[in-house]
Amino acid sequence: MRYHSVDDEQTDVEIGVPVPDGVTGEGTIVAGQLPGGRVIVIVHLGGHDRLSEAYNRIEEWLTAHNGPEGAAWEVYEWIDLSTEPDPSRWPAPSEWRTEIVQPVR
């Protein structure tokens, strides 16, 4: 999940999921690619109600260094996208591992 912008009226978000070869986008769904280059990574363990704590730590680091180079993205390590999603089989939110990847200058 990659949030480019979020406000009260509109959100611009990318969602990365595996798709079969040969499938192309339709309508407003298009193929994309994450940028290469330098990043910082933080892993948050727990529910998303406290994910802002990890983002605050990233912001502190960015303030002390060169700053961001584009939008961060989140990798939900607790969801197996190679199978049909089944929320009843997901671990408790206290066990969720979410990786935040922030491109940097």
From TrEMBL:
Superkingdom assignment: Bacteria
Gene3D superfamilies (alphabetical): Regulatory factor, effector binding domain
Chain residue ranges for the region called Disordered: 1-20
Pfam families xrefs: GyrI-like
All copies of domain GyrI-like small molecule binding, residue ranges: 5-104
InterPro entries documented for this protein: GyrI-like, Reg_factor_effector_dom_sf
Protein name as it appears in the record: GyrI-like domain-containing protein
